[in-house]
Write a structure and sequence with these properties.
Layout lengths: L12 H20 L7 H5 L3 H11 L8 H27 L9 H10 L8 H17 L4 H17 L4 H4 L12 H16 L6 H24 L12 H14 L4 H9 L3 H22 L7 H19 L29
Length: 343
């Protein structure tokens, strides 16, 4: 592990910097995934959403008092923003009336945001946080939480990306939804917060590199054999995301990281609004210069810039600021850290 250093659950420049990098990666990633094939960038940014789950677990603390009120507060904190942003996106996309009579459409709205597909992070965060809270309230120790996390992750792998390989045929459920993907990363973040030492920056970089190589190798192998199940959850995803998280924790304070850290608190808003920004930028570019509308990195840059500008402006309104900006201090005990939210 290298030199021992004291851990803290206060937000650091490095972690806020990591939030900014991760949410920008998500924006560019969603521009890339508008195509029908896997791109190198699509492979490279799969650390981003797990990072936000790790961070939520890292700051998570079970509150004193009864379980039911704590669960109620947790639901309001996570599902409240989900419901509001989902309503905004439904007004934008305006799905036909016939969709509302479909149970599948309604289920997808609740579980993954329907046409606002990136909002799946918030219901998953709510379920994963509730499970962690229940386990802690029932006296579960680190070993039990780790075992539950490992079991859920294995189930997620078997019925997710590796379902076709192991069982053959498709599976009706995307296992990134629910606790199969989010809870294991939250549990790891929670376990890290309990440790008194952490890996050095050099060790963190080796973990990140090993995870990236394994993760990319799995994706390329699955794609080669025609198996593509979103690739959100693979064996390599764990060390890849963990390595990025540990690198962020060790990031030195300098001009670049301090600047990025100032953007970190806006990650919630950027994440929630960026799909609207992508849609708007693509429409504008296609109207003014059709060829520009096919340039994903330009679209990503403009969408990220527009999203950040929107969030900075909205944060100036006190009543609306919580929708687009998270605080820099320690969150309320017993509530998940909304960091972006992301996905």
């Amino acid at each position: 592990m290298g030199d021992a250093r004291t851990m803290t659950t206060e937000r650091s420049t490095g972690l806020d910097c990591g939030r900014a990098v991760a949410v920008i990666a998500v924006v560019f990633g969603h521009v890339q995934t508008l195509g029908s094939t896997t791109t190198a960038y699509d492979v490279a940014v799969r650390f981003a959403v797990p990072f936000f789950f790790l961070l939520s677990g890292y700051f998570f603390r079970a509150p004193a008092g009864p379980l039911t009120p704590a669960l109620r507060r947790l639901a309001i904190r996570t599902l409240g923003p989900f419901a509001l942003w989902l309503a905004i996106y439904l007004l934008w996309f305006q799905p036909p009336a016939s969709d509302w009579r479909s149970p599948i459409f309604l289920a997808k709205l609740i579980v993954q945001g329907g046409p606002a597909h990136h909002l799946w992070f918030l219901p998953s965060l709510a379920v994963s946080s509730a499970l962690l809270l229940v386990l802690l309230k029932r006296g579960a120790g680190a070993g039990v939480i780790a075992a539950v996390a490992a079991g859920l992750y294995v189930v997620g792998l078997l019925f997710g990306s590796y379902h076709d390989v192991v069982f053959g045929g498709g599976f009706f459920w995307n296992t990134r939804n629910g606790p199969f993907f989010g809870f294991p990363f939250m549990a790891i973040g929670w376990l890290i917060a309990r440790r008194t030492v952490r890996p050095t920056l050099e060790a963190a970089l080796w973990i990140l590199l090993a995870g990236a190589v394994l993760h990319a190798g799995e994706i390329l192998t699955l794609d080669r054999f025609g198996v593509r199940f979103e690739h959100d959850q693979l064996l390599g995803t764990l060390p890849y995301a963990l390595g990025f998280f540990l690198v962020a924790m060790n990031a030195p304070r300098n001009a670049a990281t301090s600047l990025l850290a100032r953007l970190g608190p806006y990650s919630l808003g950027v994440y929630c609004v960026h799909l609207l920004a992508i849609e708007g930028v693509q429409a504008a570019l296609a109207h003014t210069a059709p060829a520009l509308g096919t340039m994903p990195y330009l679209v990503g840059f403009l969408a990220a810039s527009a999203s950040l500008g929107f969030c900075v402006a909205l944060a100036r309104v006190p009543a609306l600021a919580p929708l687009v900006r998270t605080g820099r201090g320690r969150p309320e005990r017993g509530t998940p850290s909304l960091v972006p939210a992301a996905g």
